[in-house]
Amino acid sequence: MYTTKKGQQGEDVLFINEIQSICPFTPALIIGGNLGQTQIIRLPCSTVCPFATLDYGDTVYRILCKGNSEILNLDTIEPIAENNSSKLIKL
């Protein structure tokens, strides 16, 4: 099941089976956390990327990053909750 949710910047973030996807081509960001801990952040597949678009009245999510056009039919589009603690999965 493919869905999108609105991100903090108004972009559409791709979710697969209610789990936030990640971009396999963007390197992870390493950020220093509290008490000397290191935090690794992966960027989701979203329409911020020039290779992802919403088509046909926001019912089709199209990605071009794999060398060919992949069309994903969307079930729903929802806003992301402020306290979202999503797991990430790779496309």
Describe this structure in a few short sentences.
The protein has strands at residues 2-6, 12-16, 19-22, 29-32, 38-41, 52-55, 60-63, 70-79, 88-90.
Strands ordered across the widest β-sheet: 6-7-8-1-2-3-9
* SSE string, helices as H and strands as E: EEEEEEEEE
Give the distance, in angstroms, between the N- and C-terminal Cα atoms: 13 Å
Mean pLDDT, nearest integer?
83
- Number of helical runs? 0
What's the structural blueprint in terms of helices and strands?
Layout: E1 2-6, E2 12-16, E3 19-22, E4 29-32, E5 38-41, E6 52-55, E7 60-63, E8 70-79, E9 88-90
Parallel strand pairs: 1-8, 3-9
Antiparallel strand pairs: 1-2, 2-3, 4-5, 6-7, 7-8
Describe this structure in words.
The chain is an all-beta fold and 91 residues long. It is 0% helix and 47% strand. The protein contains no helices and nine strands. The protein has strands spanning 2-6, 12-16, 19-22, 29-32, 38-41, 52-55, 60-63, 70-79, 88-90. A seven-stranded mixed sheet has the order 6-7-8-1-2-3-9, with no helix packed on it. A two-stranded antiparallel sheet has the order 4-5. It is elongated. The mean pLDDT is 83.
Task: Identify the notable features of this structure and list them briefly.
91 residues, two-stranded antiparallel sheet
